[in-house]
Predict the 3D structure of the following.
Amino acid sequence: MLHPWVFAGEVAELPEAAPGSLVRIVDARGRQTGIGYLNPRSKIVLRYLARGGVESAEGLWSRRIREAIARRGTYAGDAARRLVNAEGDGAPGVIVDDYAGWLSVQLTTAGSECARDEIVAALAQTRGPLGIYERSDVPERALEGLEQRTGVLWGAEPPQTVEIREGAARLLVDVREGQKTGLFLDQRENRLAVSGYARDARVLNTFAYSGGFSVHAALGGAREVTSVDISAEACSLARRNLELNGFPLDAQRTYAQNAFDFLRRSADERERYDLVIIDPPAFARGRSSLEGALRGYREINLRGLKLLEPGGVLVTCSCSRPVTREIFREVVQRAAFDAKCSVQIVEERGHAGDHPVLLQAPETDYLVCLILRVIA
Ligand code: SAH
């Protein structure tokens, strides 16, 4: 099926080459199947960068970067976009996000690490950014035998916060120390969609991070917005973002609290909302943590549903890789059973369009976003 990864057990022989080197990959009959990079220290020993009888590995990385950027087309200079989405763009190990001209880069594998200079040069030439900042502070790097790394790769250092525009919203992004590369760009189109359900609503946004969903709900005409996140830094950014978008102070509340506790307490106190958003971090990383994760999803979705007014809307997400669309629907269905309510699926959504998923690597399709309405 032409998956871009090759596991250790699938290879007869690996050449003597430094981790991250580009090598020709040949099948049992000696025919070249492509060019990829190797890492004998990782369970995934080879990752394809090109298929078939490509002659040379020269310039392959820069070509991948240029092509990915070209596919994004043009967009406003103050917008934020994912420019390179790893496997989904044929560039395994490379994530690049553009925040109004400031590029935030994650190199997650030995192959992309080795190609750092070529990748940075291609980004500098193609996008003409203000600066390129590395955010390779991700745990996956340990699986590749790599240390974490952050810092300026090219050009100027990004300011403390960069202001970007997302639809009608203005959002502050901390490129240097924010979560992920600064913002959860995979949720961009879902945040835009949510504003359409917010008119006159009392809104609860849990796992709010910097309040992206809260701001879009506010701009969509929400009466009142409550944001909850366990991180105090995230909450302070959420407050600043609501203020930046002109949302009145007396109509917003922000709590630096555990969302599980907040949801439980609100349900006990019989609070009611018209729109509840649940966007937790990945509860399951691998299959071994799946069962616990499903219990977590069931619990928060049950509590979220119980907080809704009749006719209210639940926006609920999972970014756990082992939790497929089918599994997530099922777990939310169980939550609806426990909550004793009938729920309609209004929209079933996924990543933003600039986060393409490779058809042959379905495990890279991780984000599910259901928009549901309680009908009885
Ligand atoms: N919806 C956000 C992204 C959320 S990411 C957006 O659109 O930008 C998940 C968030 O959950 C992170 O900000 C993290 O700080 C927070 N978080 C993790 N565990 C939590 C918990 N137990 N309670 C509340 N927030 C939590």
